[in-house]
Amino acid sequence: MRPVSVWQWSLWGLLLCLLCSSCLGSPSPSTAPEKRAGSQGLRFRLAGFPRKPFEGRVEIQRAGEWGTICDDDFTLQAAHVLCRELGFTEATGWTHSAKYGPGTGRIWLDNLSCSGTERSVTECASRGWGNSDCTHDEDAGVICKDERLPGFSDSNVIEVEHHLQVEEVRIRPAVGRGRRPLPVTEGLVEVRLPDGWSQVCDKGWSAHNSHVVCGMLGFPSEKRVNVAFYRPIIKLKAKPKPRVGRGPIKRVLLLQKVPKDQPPSRLLAQRQQHSFGLHGVACVGTEAHLSLCSLEFYRANDTTRCPGGGPAVVSCVPSPLYAASSGQKKQQSKPQGEARVRLKGGAHPGEGRVEVLKAGTWGTVCDRKWDLQAASVVCRELGFGSAREALSGARMGQGMGAIHLSEVRCSGQEPSLWKCPHRNITAEDCSHSQDAGVRCNLPYTGVETKIRLSGGRSRHEGRVEVQTGGPGSLRWGLICGDDWGTLEAMVACRQLGLGYANHGLQETWYWDSGNITEVVMSGVHCTGTELSLDQCAHHGTHVACKRTGSHFTAGVICSETASDLLLHSALVQETAYIEDRPLHMLYCAAEENCLASSARSANWPYGHRRLLRFSSQIHNLGRADFRPKAGRHSWVWHECHGHYHSMDIFTHYDILTPNGTKVAEGHKASFCLEDTECQEDVSKRYECANFGEQGITVGCWDLYRHDIDCQWIDITDVKPGNYILQVVINPNFEVAESDFTNNAMKCNCKYDGHRIWVHNCHIGDAFSEEANRRFERYPGQTSNQII
């Protein structure tokens, strides 16, 4: 065998090094980030509109065919996996019911179940590829965090063909300069395109188009507008003696004639250069967004735009809630009956759990087939615009009681949700974990610009500062802390757009006020439903504050979530009974002031007191735990009962006459707030033993049995007759809740001196107004139950 030269070995070695990276002395591997290939054989894209680049309907290409994913059992964990497939770091949310429009083709996945840690959607459980019983009205979408995975290969992410989209719409007032009242209800329609704001040519503009635009801007309806007032007119330029050969008669653009008493600056629309971006809009009128209409855009090289036309103009009709702020005259409308739809549990105006009135009782709506059309009908019925979002899965908290409707299918043109086709529901069909909700479009009122927080550790807390004065004399100032409480703080947080109030503070010495030291508002008293502090009662321009100085001014701590306590009224009715209890067994109760005032003059320890006993089961149906306002360091130890009181007054128990006069009362300090029982998927967090933390977890309830001290009303001095039993939770609003209207429970009761009949127990806002009037007018007259 011939020997191989060193030079030949070098050539072979070089070749081997090029073919094998494990060769000794070979260059180190590239440090460039690895590009993920995603799921093998699959391609992903985001589609639909209106949307941003990091959100949309999820579409998957499999075997050369594009398809969608059904929203059944879809979760945020599945959205995380899909966003990573699309090249984003994680998901911030997901959508259902084809929010970005229905897709086409196959529905590739249904009942998709992911843990969130899978590297590919193929590792998630589902019904199998192409096996689905859904329609495209149930297409799922994702909202990804706008942050790309390092080194992600975009070859796996196929974006749909780029189309111009209308991202935002506004009305620009065309009449008058200077300060105009808000909201703006009439003006030129402008749409936001990628290159800025543009106007819409009014050729072919219809009332349906105006309806959609007004809905997007928070108005329930529109009215006809005098278009000629806004459009320039074309006239022939007059010549005294036109002669042949002098050229054609020139056509010039003139403005409409302005009356002498109206300055030319009033007609701004006719003095401006128009920039048209859309030349064709065709809406049906049921769309929740202008992008869902058929749109025709001008091309960049179009030199002639909207010939013979002008900018589209709309005039919207605000609801009475916003009409006063816009300075419009309130129209005298025919008296209407009680509303049959309402929203509960929302942190902001125009959002909440949908509840409907049926047979005099309020109940919820199941989220099956719940979509933007149905949500928009609800929003407009309540005086808002179209729906921004149709919420499912009890996103606004769970209701209690009946579920009245399911599978609501609206076209979007109905005047009321009750006019939409729907299915009456049975107990087996749906649970309150599927309660439907909405977020509505609201008019822009600018109230958030008149309030701000200062000195806090985050933007959700601080000393409250308000803007007062008129044009030319605006100034910022503080609010006197006297009588400032939870209800006032709720309004302040709502005006700030920060949700609910955790605390309303009367002293803010630990928050630096900066250079703002003047107190400009005092005596603020709110009901809790106002949209801004200006709508609350206050002293006006006269400021009267008991404690002076910026340290004693109002402050708030806001939160996007809050608790919501609700008493189980049926249990009160089932467990109520009378007991004659000897005085010698009531020393502890007397110490805690749980007996009527006449007990002080009783012949202790002889005799007895007549007590109306009942159990109370208090549920937390909100979106945050209910915690005592005071910390553990300030809880009061009661030796007699051997426990700490974390709240001075937790409930009020009263016996009232039909006209509301109180004839007997009781009160209950929070013996111990703890999780007695919870729903199946919720764990207990609060327990009183060993000086533990007190509170009620979301999805849990605290049970006070009928046989414990102070769980009664002393009716020893009550005469026979018809009465109302009333129980109020958190009566002094010590702890913030999302809804205080459901904190009271009422029952009819009839007492004959020996026995008591208790019936018709219900939460205070569970009945219609008419049913409540009948209840209070004839207590004790129907459905008597002997106790």
TrEMBL record:
EC number in record: 1.4.3.13
Biased composition range(s): Low complexity: 325-334
Keyword Secreted recorded: yes
Pfam families per the UniProt record, alphabetical: Lysyl_oxidase, SRCR
InterPro entries noted in UniProt: LOX-like_protein (IPR050912), Lysyl_oxidase (IPR001695), Lysyl_oxidase_CS (IPR019828), SRCR (IPR001190), SRCR-like_dom_sf (IPR036772)
GO cellular component annotations of the record: extracellular space; membrane
Domain SRCR: 44-145, 171-317, 341-441, 451-559
Predominant location category: secreted
Transmembrane domains' residue ranges: none
Post-translational modification: The lysine tyrosylquinone cross-link (LTQ) is generated by condensation of the epsilon-amino group of a lysine with a topaquinone produced by oxidation of tyrosine.
UniProt keyword list: Copper, Disulfide bond, Glycoprotein, LTQ, Metal-binding, Oxidoreductase, Repeat, Secreted, Signal, TPQ
Superkingdom in the source lineage: Eukaryota
Family under the similarity heading: Belongs to the lysyl oxidase family.
UniProt name for this protein: Lysyl oxidase homolog
Origin species: Tursiops truncatus (Atlantic bottle-nosed dolphin)
Organism placement in taxonomy: Eukaryota, Metazoa, Chordata, Craniata, Vertebrata
